[in-house]
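Thread: "does anyone have the structure for this chain?"

Original post by V.I.:
We have the sequence but no experimental structure in hand. Need at least a predicted one for the grant figures.
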Amino acid sequence: MEKNQFQSDMLKALGHPTRLKVVKILSDKEQCVCELAPALNTEQSNLSKHLSVLKKAGVLVSRKDGLKVIYAIKHFEIVAIVKILEDITKNEVSNLHKSLLGEEIK
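Reply from O.Q.:
Generated one for you, tokens below.
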């Protein structure tokens, strides 16, 4: 697979709100679907589809633990990417707030 295609697929996988939430939750610790579904307020079948997309894109890995499938972040750098997005969002919201208040944005 071409490098740019791999990177694009990974970013696309992160580009869905539910999948982004999954990555944020898994950045703290690995979890099974049965733990993730209630945290995301979604059905396990729907969540399994999102987990499959993330795994196929190289964002997550999984392992069996008895009857459970445990998911984890494959590369720690993914967490850093999400943190950068959080920082950008915080700055954008702050700038929007300042703009609405008529303050100068630096």
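V.I.: this helps a lot. Residues 87 and 96 are 14 Å apart (CA to CA).
O.Q.: and The first strand starts at residue 31 and ends at 32.
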